[in-house]
Amino acid sequence: MASTAQPLRAAIIPVTPLQQNCTLLWCTKTMRGAFVDPGGDLPLLKSQMEKHGVTIEKILVTHGHFDHCGGAAQLADDLGVAIEGPHPEDMFLLEKLDEDGLRYGVPGRSFVPSRWLDQGDTVTVGEVEFAVHHTPGHTPGHVVFHNAESKLAIVGDVLFRGSIGRTDFPRGNHQDLINSIVTRLWPMGDDTFFLPGHGDPSTFGQERQSNPFVADSVIA
Predict the structure, then answer these.
(1) pTM of this prediction?
(2) Is the dihedral of CA 115, 26, 57, 47 positive or negative?
């Protein structure tokens, strides 16, 4: 699955037994890119990087669950790049990536990112800029990446096609998650295409019409 919007391309690469959507992003002008949420299966990720001819310059992380960032530290070491994200409220999750990964047979390694992210920050991929939005609820330190020009958002486990993120994990909060979706995601526009942490992409407009948890008719 790839986004055809220019000057940005995005390829979804499911990884780990939980089929988490790692995203390979790249700037088509510079062919410099980033992996978002490299949870594991690093040989697969590297092969996709080479297939698309992308030079990775950083790793971006939406939140601290092992299926999203268990492989981030090793991949950063292998490629000689820095990790940016998530928000510091997820430090408690990053500290136990090793043990959480073991439960599912997924190698995980704890890390402290080179840069923590917060509401109002920006990150760059090549010459493409993404706005950072702090979106607590699934985890307290979850962040989302949005490129307005390409009408693309990478939302981790905040929102899915037809569903929303779980809030029964430690420090999850259902009302915070709903607030994050309504106040952070919806203002990006109904025509914004989003890549979720699991499953198929969708648009915010489609979810506002039909998502049983956050459709306008449900939360009005």
Answers:
(1) 0.96
(2) positive
**In degrees rounded to 5, what are phi and psi of residue 3?**
-85, 130
| Burial (CB count within 10 angstroms: exposed 0-12, middle 13-18, buried 19+), residue 33 | buried
What's the angle, vertex CA 156, arms to CA 76 and CA 17, rounded to 5?
A: 70
pLDDT, one tens digit per residue, over 160-203 is: 999 999 999 999 999 999 999 999 999 999 999 999 999 999 99
Dist CA 153 CA 54 (whole Å): 20
User: What is d(CA 2, CA 186) in angstroms, rounded to the nearest whole number?
Assistant: 23
Distance CA 122, CA 149 (A): 14
Residue with structure tokens 């790839």?
2
Copy the structure tokens of residue 98.
Answer: 């090793």
Report yes or no: 23 and 3 within 8 Å, Cβ to Cβ.
Answer: no
Q: Are 155 and 196 in contact (CB under 8 A)?
A: yes
Cβ atoms of residues 66 and 106 within 8 Å:
yes
Name the token pair of 36.
């978002």
* Residue 141, CA distances (Å) to 116, 152, 198 in order: 10, 21, 18
